[in-house]
Amino acid sequence: MIKKKYANKSDWTRVLKRKFTTRYFKNEDFEGYVSVTRIEKVREPLIKNILGKDYCLVDDGYIWLETLPFKGNYCLTTMYDRNKKIVQWYFDITRKKGLTDEGIPFFEDMFLDVVVLPDSNMLLLDENELKDALNEGEITQQDFDMAYTEAKEIMKNIAVDVNKLSDFSNKYLKEFF
Predict the structure, then answer these.
(1) DUF402 domain location, by residue (predicted)?
(2) Cystine design at 31: which of 19, 26, 47, 72 (Cβ 3.0–4.6 Å)?
């Protein structure tokens, strides 16, 4: 089932205390919404093993910077540790994006994800979920093709330069601190 995800992570039970801020930006390199979630207290850290190495993605003092551009079918989440060091970039492939009546950015998650690590390793995740959604009639062939096209575009043109990704993410993080 296609999930609607909200930038303020209102359904996030792992996080016990957080501060959320969102702003609209329009400039030469980006137009859309940027949200920051400062994670103050968690029930327990979230640690994922990626390519044989453990990465802590959520813990006390971590920051998630979420950019939801008007152009493109993706949402980029940059995950920072408590020292504001980037842990990873996570691209959710999206269909519909918008704002709630309360001004909270949201997107419809199209299952397929691209993860980029600071060492330039890149992963394409959840291909089976996307295929299952097509086979079960949850999405159309057009949705399926769009998701793969967007993921390939990200992997070919956006995610290949971690220095550029770092500069972009850090530029917007500084807008909030």
Answers:
(1) 69-159
(2) 26
**Cβ of 150: how many Cβ atoms within 10 Å?**
20
Q: What is the pLDDT of residues 121-151, one digit of tens each?
A: 999 999 999 999 999 999 999 999 999 999 9
What kind and span of H or E run contains 15? strand 15-26
Distance CA 20, CA 147 (A): 28
Domains of the chain (ranges; CATH) run: 3-174 (2.40.380)
- CA–CA dist 70, 82 (Å, integer): 29
- Residue stretches of the chain with pLDDT short of 50: none
Q: What is the pLDDT of residue 177?
A: 87
